[in-house]
Amino acid sequence: MKKLSILFLLLMSNQIFAQKAKLIWADEFEKDGLPNPKNWSYNVGDHGWGNQELQFYSEARLENARVEDGKLIIEAKKDSNYPKGYTSARLVTKGKAFWKYGYIEVKAKLPTGRGTWPAIWMLAEENKFGGWPANGEIDIMEHVGFDPGKVHGTVHTEAFNHKIGTQKGGFRMVPEFNTEFHVYSIEWNKEKIDFYIDNKLYFTFEKSSDNYKEWPFDEPFHLILNIAVGGGWGGQQGVDPTIWPQKMEIDYVRVYNKKNFE
To answer: Which of 105, 137, 187, 249 does the annotation list as catalytic?
Structure first.
């Protein structure tokens, strides 16, 4: 009987261990200065980024992207030295870290004001299906300043995207979006993508076909963090010239092989 009890306990402990999520990548932003170049690179320029955005995304510029006091700060600023009048930063893990499936969470405090457009999102690591939107896009968090507190989670594919009015997404109201940190996350597997805010599920995108036009999400994706200024969505009601600078503060980014069991 004693041997059976020990065997049962061993089986149970192995089952619990098997269920435990494994941390596979993280940035806790512990060293002040520029973001860790082993983890992050930059998209650079002011060509509008497909959305008529106004900012110039800079590279390795502390005014726009820095780590201080244990937080990553992405800061959008007015700057008359640039043709469209604004600078910001767009950090990417492309070529450095990318994942196929997993649980991705980012703890962040968002900017506020008309014309701000912060995002935590993902794009395909490789151009397998012919560019956007065919390669897919996963928007873990988007917020536009003219609609304060309404935080969106969205996917874009060739079949489902905002250019043709078929995008798939959900939202949740977060009244303290700019005064408190919240955890924005997805759990992504071969069948679906679940979207969470503070561990509360608010949208699920389910695989409906093996066709890449509907589900291109069986490929590796990398992470992007940025604040856009204006643009086709963020600038729908104009840009308030009096609110700048504006910051997105990020406490951590963590990637697990799956969602933690509660």
So the answer is: 137
Residue 64 has which token pair? 């726009």
CB-CB contact of 197 with 182 (8 Å): yes
Annotated catalytic residue 262: no
Q: CA Rg, the chain, in Å? A: 20
pTM as predicted: 0.92
CB-based contacts of 36, cutoff 8 Å, min separation 6: 27, 67
Q: How deeply is 26 buried, as exposed, middle or buried, from its count of CB atoms within 10 A (0-12, 13-18, 19+)?
A: middle
CA gap 157, 99 in Å, rounded? 18
| 105 included as an active-site residue | no
Digit-coded pLDDT (tens) for 243-256: 999 999 999 999 99
Side chain identity, residue 115:
G
Domain regions of the chain by residue span: 22-256
* Active-site residue (options: 105, 142, 158, 249): 142
The torsion defined by the Cα of 154, 160, 166 and 169, in degrees rounded to 10, comes to -20
Give per-residue pLDDT as tens, 88-117.
999 999 999 999 999 999 999 999 999 999
- According to CATH, what is the number of the domain 22-256? 2.60.120.200
